[in-house]
Amino acid sequence: MINEGLVASFAFLIIVVAEGLIALFLTRAGKTHPKIRKIPGLEAIEEAVGRATEMGRPIAYTTGLGGIRDQVYYQTIAGLNILGYTAELAAKYGAKLKYFPYDPTVMPLAVDVMEQAYISAGKPEEFNPENVQYLGGDQFPWAFGVLGIMYREKTAANIHMGPFWAESLILAEAGFYTGAIQIAGTANYHQIHFFVVAADYALIGEELMAAGAYLSKDPTQIGSLWGADFSKITTMALILLGVIMTAAGINALNDFLVL
Amino acid sequence: MGITMVIATYFFAPGTAERDASALLTASVDILVVTAGLIGLIVLLRHHTRNISRRGRYWKYSIVTIIGVILYLIVGLYGVATHEQHLMYASDLFSWVYNNLYVHMDMTIFSLLAFFIASAAYRAFRLRSLEASILLIVGSLMLLGRAPIGGVIWEGFPEIATWLLNVPNTAGNRAITLSVAIGAILLAIRQLIGVERGYLGPER
Fold first, then answer.
1. Contact call for B44 and A136, based on CB within 8 A
2. pTM (two decimals)
3. Is residue B97 part of a domain?
4. For testing contact with chain A, the best of B50, B98, B182 (most A CBs within 10 A)
5. What is the pLDDT of residues A151-174, one digit of tens each?
């Protein structure tokens, strides 16, 4: 039996997973060819790397305060997806990319991602593990470590992708004053506005999770994003149905949600 | 492991042996974390000792970093060695250093956020587009509604601020939260079935 209070949650999970998988397999089978809209924040990464190459200055990259074992791990993973893409571009162009992990568990993963990116770009000898620099695992000391490097090394581009809290504006605003091009994205709704205001390009919410599929250009992965659209339509339909039923005095949906 | 956790959450009631067993599985991640923490410490020390030996940029700060790390490590180990209290609790000396040095430095950095908010708000609140103008009007109403002087000027300001928070703000937040939740579930599924492997580096 499903635990009390989690029946509706489980049902919704099954619906979302089913819609995502159906869309994914339909795309893989070639039955449909969904298109994905342009995400300016991800398109701008190449511009940022190019700028850093021309200026001969480094790129600072962070994935926020997340690890791989917490509730926001999916944002860290999305940030690492984009790190791989950025590192590959940096290797191709010959730009210096510096990554600053917050959580020590992310560090070995990031070293691996960057090394793999340099191998993919055909320049494994140019990968320097010291460009992945651990600055500590506390919020503000870490943020000011990154900020200090941004100021001292005059980074040409700052890319922040992952879960951020109060340090988001510290990083983005300080980066603005250094004159760097800034691309930032988070799914933490309470920090998105700071990035929108202070960064040149911002990835809002789910755009961050779609980044891996978007950058890979893999139709199968893009298919699952199509499935996410179906889940959103289902959600909106449920909200609308709930409003109508509640207004009509029918509490069946409300009763189901608390089961 | 991912599927085990889903099953444990939905089908094993809290307090049962099955739920405890699944909790043990997640606790095993701590072993990985401790190892990763040690790697972090080694990398930090290696980076700064190299910087000092090469007389790299700002090498004097590297000395401060190494002294800080080693001193705090000694204080921590001293607390463990003398352990007046249970090992789970920090020693008095460790807590003193933390409360009287670290916390104050941390709060000093945090307080700088107020200045960054002011400068960001100055840029964002300029009348340069329709969106910026809406932000300016809404931001001004929020400031007046939340600052005590707003209620003194006109008693409607706090009500407007509350409405803005409860209606349009909540609607926007919920839209983002729902989209993120769906996106996160599907990202996890793509990883579990091995379709998305970008976090392991670009594929050749």
1. yes
2. 0.91
3. no
4. B182
5. 999 999 999 999 999 999 999 999
